[in-house]
Design a protein that fits this description.
CATH superfamily: Luciferase-like domain
Number of domains: 1
Radius of gyration: 20 Å
Largest sheet: 8 strands, parallel, barrel
Strand order of the largest sheet: 1-2-3-4-7-8-9-12
Structural class: alpha/beta
Shape: globular
């Protein structure tokens, strides 16, 4: 991209200027984060996601966080999360449809992707979004991934982060160099890798990571920009402060500043009675077999989510899949989100039951007061 073509202010620059970034965790996995028959099992459809993205644009939300992955064929009667739309394709499409929110796509970088291939795609999407593309770097593996993608895995958790670190270092070299790149590592090698189209963001597009093990924090603090955390239990503010401080200290030791983000589940209604009615409806239609399956996926012996396995979360918490629960009237939701911000959180990507209706209600009844309370202004 020529200098004359660069945007005066990139999407990322606008977003990171916020004191408290407010985004959406897009329900690219059908059913979203509600393991109940009360949920919509078509949330992964592009028409549904497009409407959410356009709402985010209308209300000047800051980013769209796109989950991704590969699921084995499910045989359960309740077809929760048996379809996952591709985060990379969606990032390009939704980024082209909007002008304000960043698009952050989950990428399982150890699934036999060549760094040069990823660098090229990311640079292209970054141009489409005027410097608004980010990668949620996932270093873990699901148990079936090595067989599906035809590669060997040692099973060593920390070694995966060492491999991921080589991958990201090579990416950054390719993005930043005007000459062909040679790289010789233990896990990745290249000779003469050259990228003729550079990302708008320099030195690199946004990188996000959710690792919380020692190896994960070391990786994020050295190579990523935002860290995505979960709390020990659904309303545990103290653990949010503890984890935020721990991660910030890791970043600071590398001479860097961290931004901390979380994914709260929002149930907001005019009265407490209406909030309880929604909660009861979700519980009455809960599929506990599916809840148990999600619990095993996040906290079981084969889990790739150490950020969850190190928490005190119980089986019932996975009705809402490990989210931080922010339930209440508009005034109560505002108070709880301000408290999260005070606990050390720089940004939230929100989760809802009815994404269209509930997002609109939140943006009308809570968002203006939230922006004013933390000192943010309109774009």
């Amino acid at each position: 991209m020529n200098g004359d073509d660069l945007p005066l202010v990139t999407r990322r620059e606008r977003v990171e200027a916020r004191k408290f970034m407010v985004g959406i965790f897009m329900p690219t996995m059908n059913g979203g984060w509600t393991v109940s028959r009360a949920t919509n099992l078509n949330t992964n459809k592009f028409s549904y996601l497009k409407t959410i993205a356009l709402q985010a644009e209308q209300y000047e939300l800051d980013y769209l966080f796109l989950a991704g992955g590969y699921t084995p064929k499910l045989t359960a009667e309740f077809r929760f999360r048996d379809k996952i739309s591709d985060a990379i394709g969606l990032a390009s499409a939704l980024g082209a449809l909007t002008t304000q929110p960043m698009v952050i796509a989950t990428w399982h970088i150890l699934y036999r992707h060549a760094p040069l291939f990823v660098a090229k795609l990311a640079a292209g999407i970054d141009e489409i979004t005027d410097g608004g593309f980010g990668i949620n770097v996932v270093c873990g593996l699901t148990p079936n991934a090595p067989a599906m993608f035809d590669f060997e895995d040692s099973g060593d958790h920390d070694e995966r982060y060492l491999a991921a670190a080589e991958f990201i270092r090579m990416l950054k070299l390719i993005w930043g160099s005007n000459d062909p790149v040679d790289f010789s590592g233990k896990y990745y090698q290249t000779r003469g890798a050259f990228l003729d189209t550079k990302p708008v963001q320099q030195p690199s597009p946004l990188l996000v990571n959710a690792g919380f093990s020692d190896a994960g924090q070391t990786f994020a603090a050295e190579l990523c920009d935002w860290s995505f955390i979960v709390s020990d239990s659904p309303t545990d503010y103290e653990s949010v402060t503890r984890r935020s401080n721990q991660i910030r200290a890791r970043y600071a030791a590398n001479g860097r500043k961290a931004k901390i983000c979380m994914h709260p589940y929002i149930i907001c209604r005019e009265t407490e009675a209406e909030v309880q009615e929604v909660r009861d409806h979700i519980w009455q239609h809960a599929d506990m077999k599916a809840v148990a399956q999600q619990f095993r996926a996040f906290k079981g012996a084969d889990s790739m989510m150490q950020s969850h396995s190190q928490t005190r979360r119980e089986l019932e918490d996975y009705l809402f899949i490990g989210t931080f629960q922010v339930f209440g009237t508009p005034e109560q939701v505002l108070e709880k989100l301000v408290r999260l911000h005070q606990a050390g959180v720089d940004g939230i990507h929100m989760v809802f039951l009815d994404w269209h209706k509930d997002l609109a209600f939140f943006c009308e009844r809570v968002l203006p007061q939230l922006r004013a309370e933390v000192g943010d202004v309109s774009y």
